[in-house]
Specification:
This is Phosphoribosylaminoimidazole-succinocarboxamide synthase. The chain has 252 residues and is of the alpha+beta class. The chain has seven helices and 14 strands. α1 packs parallel to α6.
Length: 252
């Protein structure tokens, strides 16, 4: 598939015009950032792994009725997706206290919450993606009341399903971030799950040891970042035990 012109480059992905009407091509990079891009680096093979993990998760979610922008994986680093208008809100689900929630509220990291907490963050790198309430979202017109209700409903369904999926492979789903987009078909609009699902935008801990298996290993200089991403992919069954990530990385 030939590639058209790039239309956007973010911290971890590049978006290109798709070769089919109403589509984009999402290219996964090895670049890694943390603390609103104050820390930068590279995780070898990350783009390949995140592409495969995202394909797996988006496909499974579609099977349970969650609409997504994912169409198909093109190659080791690219996937074809529906073009959508991104809702300028990052939706974070927390099952266990960690990260900014622990710091913000003075709670001990690792405490399991009595129920999932859904938080909203305004998508604006210059502002540091600030935490906002549903009142902000509605008053400022970032989403309608009906859209927000649908977003929360889909988010909780995704959380229920993925908690069970991860539990089955010995992983705790601590928290994760989702993004949603509007897809237009004539005068009709519907919401879809967009962006990605990978160790870049969630916290995954080993169910027995609580060993971190996500980008926190990069954020906190814990080492073993590549190995952690590979282990998640292997447990999900998208990376064979005998696979050589370096050889996969050559297929771009």
């Amino acid at each position: 598939m030939s590639r058209k012109q790039p239309i956007y480059e973010g911290k971890a992905k590049v978006l290109y015009e798709g070769t089919e009407p109403g589509t984009i091509i999402q290219y996964f990079k090895d670049d890694a950032t943390a603390f609103n891009a104050q820390k930068r680096g590279t995780i070898a093979g990350k783009g390949v792994l995140n592409n495969m993990i995202t394909e797996f998760v988006m496909t499974r979610l579609a099977e349970i009725g969650i609409p997504t922008h994912f169409i198909r994986r093109i190659n080791m680093r690219e996937q074809l997706c529906k073009k959508c208008e991104i809702v300028p809100i990052e939706v974070v689900v927390r099952n266990i206290v960690a990260g900014s929630m622990a710091k913000r509220l003075g709670l001990e990291e690792g405490e399991r919450l009595p129920r999932p907490i859904v938080e909203f963050y305004y998508k604006d790198d210059a502002l540091g993606d600030p935490l906002v309430s549903d009142e902000h979202i509605l008053a400022l017109g970032w989403a309608s009341a009906e859209e927000l209700e649908e977003i929360v409903g889909m988010t909780l369904r995704v959380n229920d399903y993925l908690c069970g999926l991860m539990r089955g492979i010995g992983i705790k789903l601590v928290d994760f971030k989702l993004e949603f987009g509007r897809v237009w078909e004539g005068d009709f609009m519907h919401l879809v799950l967009a962006d990605e699902f990978s160790p870049d935008n969630c916290r995954l801990w080993d169910a027995v040891t609580n060993e971190k298996m996500d980008k926190d290993r990069f954020r906190r200089d814990l080492g073993g970042v590549e190995e952690a991403y590979q282990e998640v992919a292997r447990r999900l069954g998208v990376l064979p035990e005998s696979a050589d990530i370096e050889s996969l990385n050559k297929d771009k």
